[in-house]
Design brief:
Order of helices and strands: HEEEEH
Helix content: 10-25%
Structural class: alpha+beta
Number of helices: 2
Distance between the termini: 75 Å
Strand content: 15-25%
Largest sheet: 4 strands, antiparallel
Oligomer: single chain
Radius of gyration: 17 Å
Number of strands: 4
Length: about 80
């Protein structure tokens, strides 16, 4: 008689570990590259130079808001003054 199998849990970490990461089209092959991974209801963002570090994670809606803010110029470095 075989033991019943425990169903595997698809945790968020599992999703990150098996994610397909895409480089930003704006990276132009340079060393300052951002990668993203679409994870169902979330989006991961990471620095391509240190892929082992935990990524910044957004809900899908939060990612859209983040990208919109960048496009509008809302997320600029503060100027000293």
């Amino acid at each position: 008689m075989t033991e019943p199998q425990t169903p595997t849990r698809n945790t968020f970490k599992d999703q990150l570990d098996s994610a397909t990461w895409f480089k930003s089209s704006r990276s132009s092959g340079g060393t300052n590259c951002v990668e993203i991974a679409f994870l169902g209801t979330a989006v991961g963002v990471r620095d391509s130079k240190i892929p082992g570090q935990p990524p910044l994670c957004f809900t899908t809606e939060g990612y859209k808001t983040f990208i919109s803010g960048i496009a509008r110029g809302d997320l600029r470095w503060p100027t000293s003054g």
